[in-house]
Amino acid sequence: MAAAAVVPLLAYGAVSIISLRNGADRAVIEGNANVARQVAEQIQLYVTSSIRILKAVSADLERTGLERWQQDRIIKNYVLEFPEFAELTLLDENGRLVISSSFGEPSTTIPGSDSVNVGGALLSKFEVDDDFLPTAVAAVRLSDSGGWLVGRLNLEELWRMVDRIRVRDEGFALVVTNEGRLLAHGNPDEKEHVARGDSYRDNAAVVKLRSDGTGSNRVASEQYLTALRGEVLGVAAGVPELDWTVVVEQPISEAFSISLALRQQLIIAITLALFAMLTLGYFWGRSFINPILRLTRGTRALAEGRLDERVAVDSNDELGQLGSAFNNMADRLVELQEDVRKKERQAMFGRISIGLVHDLSHPIQNIGNSCKLIVKMWDDIEYRESFKRTVERELAQVKRVLDDLRNVARPIPLERFPIDVNKAIAELVDSMVTTADSAGVTLETEQVFGPLFVEGDLFALNRVYRNLIINALQATPPRGRVVVRTLRQSDHAIIEIADTGTGIAPERIETIFDDFVTTKRRGLGLGLAISKKIVEQLGGTIAVTSQVGLGSTFSLRFPLTKARPSQLSAVSASG
Fold it and tell me: Which of the two ends of the chain, N or C, has the fewest CB atoms closer than 10 A to its terminal CB?
């Protein structure tokens, strides 16, 4: 109700602010547009006047009966009299030099196909001379001889003209050519962009003018960010005959300073009124809203898992009864959660126990049987050697199970060296061919041509490869096929272990890399979890695709490295 009371005030303030802003913005934009138009007219007059002078020189040169020395005197007098021209050169119809005001080799040539026609003369693109001043070449064809009078325009005065333009304290003008290059800038801090030949084709005001403006007096305005001055108002006007653009840039803070001050005053007044009304409304409705807020906080706490949160009940009305019901629900949730945790712990301990029994019972039983026989056959030297091998093999199996349990809880220490994936996999597959033959499964390799180096730990990676290959062999029935292939994709090495086994059900793929998750009937289910930890520690990724009854494919992806073992050794030796 308190908020509703200020709606008329807010509506009136909004209308006032919008009207003030629109009127002030239009006035500022129109004022800057008039400045841009005037600059554009002066620039066009400056260039066209220079063209008229050039045509007047050409008319003088075409007077019959003039000797070469007279023509030479004419163009040199014009260069001395009109500073707009840095050089005048007369060329014959074949473009060969006839006379020039330059004492050395002339620097002017007939403008090319990228020139524009201005008042009957060809005007080239502007460029920056050795003194970092803008210049351009204009050429007029002589009607009698068919030759060309070529003049280099000195646009330094255009710079001075642009420098003199000021809009208040921080408004400057800039000129952009038809190809988008910056020709002049009134801001001294940004003149370096002219010397560098920076492109202003993407300037927001220039883009809008070229896309929306029509007619000789076309104008466009836009607000945009600049690197040096922040947000500015840019008002652009075209120079029709030259197809150049004049932009007047002024910081928003200065351009709209008056309207901004008035808007701020209106906003402050409206805000104070709104704050006063809402404060009264807040204290008036606090007694009614507080119970609802407490229930909201309690519900949010339960959603975040903080089941110890309770709602204070200080009344017997409907809200008080709702708070009591909420507290009873939270108590029941605590009991249910504790029951679920207890069952989860029991299930987890049961799985770990079954896995440990499965993984450790066989090696312990083999050690026990061997110990019983060694008592009877101690004198048999050959059996003592067999006993030693059996105990070492089974103890190694026990150690692997214990290492798996330890590695799940903490990162595995790894070293990084350049490893040739093709070579490492070839050696490992050769060592496991006998195991595959015993299972009646064909084990093959398909390797990409050339070395495939990644940075990794050879022992850890071989453990990952061996685990995936053994899983594939165990999942593949006799007469099946397991393929280990390497691929090169852009700057990554891909290792795939594909089998034609039973496959993995879709609902189990999401959790196959989790701790204590396995598709086998027995075991701890740590192999794939540890493999994933190793791969991720080495900066790689591991993924699986599978179809039930068709087989599975495990894919490892590692970034390639340009380092080689020999290079690493050389660096270590020099260090």
Answer: C
Query: Any idea what DSSP says for residue 199?
Result: B
Sheet strands (E) in 403-476:
417-420, 442-446, 453-456
Task: Examine residue 401 and state whether it is found in any structural domain, yes or no.
Answer: yes
The answer to pTM > 0.70 is no
| CA–CA distance, 90 with 398 (Å, rounded to integer) | 99
Instruction: Label the pairing between strands 417-420 and 453-456.
Output: antiparallel
Pairing of strands 492-499, 453-456: unpaired
Same domain assignment for residues 400 and 421 = no
Residue 136 pLDDT: 83
Does residue 150 belong to any structural domain of this protein?
no
Instruction: Please answer whether residues 192 and 199 qualify as being in contact, where contact means their C-beta atoms are separated by less than 8 angstroms.
Output: no
User: How many Å apart are CA 249 and CA 223, to the nearest integer?
Assistant: 9
Are residues 177 and 126 in contact, defined by beta-carbon separation less than 8 angstroms? yes
Mark whether 545 and 475 lie in a shared domain. Answer: yes
Determine the pLDDT at residue 372: 79
Range of the domain at 387: 364-409
β-strands 182-185, 492-499: how paired?
unpaired
Three-state secondary structure of 289-312: HHHHHHHHHHHHHHHCCCCCCCCC
Provide the pLDDT for residue 447.
Answer: 93
Judge if 477 and 392 occupy the same domain.
no
pLDDT at 409: 57
- The angle at the Cα of 213, spanning 208 to 219, to the nearest 5 degrees, equals 85
Distance CA 56, CA 67 (A): 18
- Residue 197 has phi, psi (to 5 degrees) of 70, 35
Residue type, 74: I
C-alpha 552/C-alpha 504 separation (Å) is 7
Co-location of 381 and 439 in the same domain = no
Q: What is the pLDDT of residues 138-177, one digit of tens each?
A: 888 887 777 888 888 887 777 788 888 888 888 899 988 8
Judgement on whether residues 432 and 540 belong to the same structural domain of the protein = yes
120 in a domain, yes or no?
Answer: no
**Residue 94 phi, psi (nearest 5):** -95, 5
> Is the separation of the CB atoms in 43 and 123 below 8 Å?
no
Structure tokens at 393: 């093999």
- Residue 140 CA to residue 60 CA, distance in Å, equals 13
If asked whether residues 397 and 471 sit together in one domain, one would say: no
pLDDT of residue 517: 46
Q: SS3 string of 39-104?
A: HHHHHHHHHHHHHHHHHHHHHHHCCCCCCHHHHHHHHHHHHHHCCCEEEEEEECCCCCEEEECCCC
What pLDDT score was predicted for residue 408? 58
